[in-house]
Predict the 3D structure of the following.
Amino acid sequence: MLKNYNILRNLSLKEKATLLSGKNTWETQEIKDSVPSIFLSDGPHGLRKQVGASDHLGLNASQPATCFPTAATLANSWDEHLVEEIGQALGKEAEDLDVQVILGPGLNIKRNPKCGRNFEYYSEDPYLSGKMAGASIRGIQANGTIACPKHFAVNSQEYRRMASDSIVDERTMREIYLTGFEIAIKEGQPRAIMSAYNKINGIYANEHPKLLQEILVDEWGFEGFVVSDWGGDNNHVEAIKAGSHLAMPSLGAEGAREVVKAVQEGNLSEETLNQRVDEILTVILDVPVKKEESPTDWKKHHQLAKEAAMKSAVLLKNEAAVLPIQSTQKVGFIGEFAERPRYQGAGSSMVNAHQLENVVDLLADYPLNVSGFELGYRRGANTDDNLIKKAVELANKSEVVVVYAGLDESYESEGMDRTHLSLPQSQLELLEALATTETKIVVVLSAGSVVEMPWLKNISGLIHLYLSGEAGASASLEVLTGRYNPSGKLSETYPLSYQEVPFGEEYPAMGPYAYYKEGPFVGYRYYNTKKNEVLFPFGYGLSYTDFKYSQLHLMDDGICFTLTNTGHVAGEEIVQMYVTAPKETNLRPVHELKGFKKVSLQAQESCNVFLPFDDYTFRTYNVKEKEWQVNTGLYIINVGGHSRELPLSLEVFKEGVAKEVHVLLSENYQTLSLNQITMKDFETLYQEPVPVFQEHKRQLLHENSTLSDLQYAPGFLGRQVYRVLHRLLKRSQRKGTPNLNLLFIYNMPFRAIGKMTNGLISSEMSHELVRMGNGHVIKGGIRFIQQFFVNKKENKRWRSKEEVMK
C-alpha cells in the first residue's frame, strides 16, 4: 500500500520520474503545491553548506560551522554518549542553516592504512564503527534532521573509486564490511543512506538489488531512501529497479527522460517507479518545518568540540612520566602545526571552522614556563636547515620541547590514497636533529590515520590528536599540562611498518578489480591471530593513572567484573570485551571485539562493570546456508584494556547449530600464511572463479573506463590528454595541496561526465568522447557536436512542458 497515494495519483509520469534526480548540486526537485525540495549537505564532522557556486568537493566557500573532530578521532573516545551529543549539535546547526540532510557519518572499514579517506571513517573494526555511527545518527536525527550514513558498501580505496570492483567473499562482506552498517541502521534508524561508487562482485553498489533490497530493507528493516554518491549513478533505470531513490547531483532532463522511456517501453514497471517515489516522499514529507528558535550557541558547541578532542586524544608513550609537564619546567614549542594546525581532512568534508584555535596564541592561558617557539619546518616544503638550527637552539635552552608534527593536507585527501606511511621528510630530519640534544622530546601528532614511527625510540612522550577539529589546540594543552587525564584508545592497529600490512603491495588496486584476499583478517584480527608484533595494538592507550581488572563473573546476559583506579588521580578507562570462538569452528580470528564501555573513576575508587551480550556476540555467517548462526561450543570471553592485554577470561558454553558446514580453504588460509596466498587460494575463499583483468599496452576504452585509462588509449589524442592531466596532477601534489578537481577527474569514468554536468553533456555525447579517445577523433568529434545540438533541443523541449513543476 502506497503511503502517499493521494499525492502520487495526481503526479504525471514525467513528474514522478523527475523526483528521482536532484534539482541541482545539493537540492532535490520540488513539485509546486505538492512536494517540497530538501537540501543535502556534507557534514560528517561539521556542516559544509556553500554560500556561492556549489560543488561537491569543498572547493568553494561555505558557511561558518563548528568543526568537530573527524570520525577517525572520535572513534578513539569509544564514547557513544559523546558522539551522540555531537550529532545533536550537528543537527541543530543544520536546522539553523536550513539543511535537511547531513551526508554522514562515514563508516567504511579501514582495510588498509593508506586509504586517503581513512580520516572520515571510524575504525578497522565493524562493531566499534557501527556503535559510533549509530550514536551519531541518533544525535543528528533528534530534532528531525536526516542522517545519511555512507558509503554503502565495501568501499576501501580512493584510486579508481568510481570504477573499481571489490571482489570479496560473502562471509567477509557480511562479517566485516556490512556489520557496521547493520548496527548503525538498526540502532540509529537513519532516514537515508548513501550508496558507494564502486562495484561489489561485478555489480555497482547503487544498482545492487541484494545489497539495497534483500539486505538493507528486507533483513535490516531500513525505511529511508537511498541516494547515490555524487556522480555515482551508473544506470539510472537499473538503480531504481534495485532500490535506489535519488541520483545526485542533477541528471538534468536526460535522467527523467530515461525513466519515462523505460516505463513506456516496459523496461521499468510503473508500480516500481511509484514505490520508489512513495518511499522518498515518505521521508521528505516527514521533514519538520523549520522552527523559529534561538540561534546556534557557538560557545557551547566550541566547548563540546574541545571536550571531544580531549576525550579522543591518545597517550601512546610517557617515558619516565615526562607528562604532564610541570609548571616549573622550561618548555619550548616547535612545529608549524602549533601555529597553523592540521585539524581536519581535505575534500568534501572540509569545514569552514567557526572558531579555529592555535597553540601559540593559547600558551599564555596555561601554567607553562615557555622558553620560546620555533617553526622547525613548513608544511609542503623541503627541509629548511635554518629552521632546524633554530629549533635545536631552543631545545638546548629547554628542559622539554613539545613538537607539533604530523601529516599535512597533501598526504590525506578524498580522491587519492597515500603512497607511504611516513611523516614528511622535513619533520623526520627535525626530529633526528632534536634527538642529538639532551632535552626530553614530546611529540603531539596530527594525522587522520596510521603513520610509521622509526623516531619513537628517540622521544619521551607521544600524544596522538588525530584530526581534532577547531578546538584541538586547547585540548592538547589541557592534556599536556595535566588538567585533563587522557583516556583515548586507538581504534586501529599500528603495524611496525607498512611491510607488515597484508597485501600492502597490491593496495590500492590499480586495475578494475580490488581483491579482498585477506578475508575477515583485517587489522587486529590478523595481527593478533598470527601473533605478529605491532607498534601499538588495537584498543591501546595510556593514562596518567593505572587500572586493575579483577573478579570476572558470568551473568545470564553478559559478564560482570571489578575495575579499580589504583593511581593517584581521577581517570577514565575504556574496558573492552573480546570473544574467542570454539576451536572446532571454521577459520576465525582469535579475538573479535564484542563489547566496550567508558568508565570514570576517582583515585583508589572501584566499581562493578557490566558488559552485556547482544545479537552480535557469538554469531558467524554461514555461507552455505546463507544465514547468521551461533555454533555450538565453548567460547572464551576476554576482558582488558586493549586487544593485547586481556587479564581476565572465562569460558561460556553456547548451544546453537550442532555442526557447522566448513568451507574447504587452502592450506595457506588454514595456516594464515597471507603472504603466500595465490589467486587459486583466493578462489577457495571466494567459492567461485575470480575475474581477472588482462592488461595490455593498448586497449579499447569504454564508458566505464576512467580518464586515467587514457594512458592505454589506442588514439594518440587520448594519450596526450592523459599526459597533460597526469602532469597537472603531479604539479599540484608538489605544491603540497591536493587539487580536488583534478583528483576527481583523474578517477572519473566517461559515463560520469554526463552525470555531473546537470544534463549539459548527454550519455550519447559521453559515448562519442570514448570514440575520440579510441582514435576516431574526426568521426567522434562530428558526432559529439551533432549530439550536443540534439541534447540541447531535447532539453529545451522537455523544459517547455515543465511549468507545472516550478
Remarks:
- The CA atoms of residues 146 and 274 lie 22 Å apart.
- The mean pLDDT is 93.
- The longest helix spans residues 777-799.
- The chain has 24 helices and 26 strands.
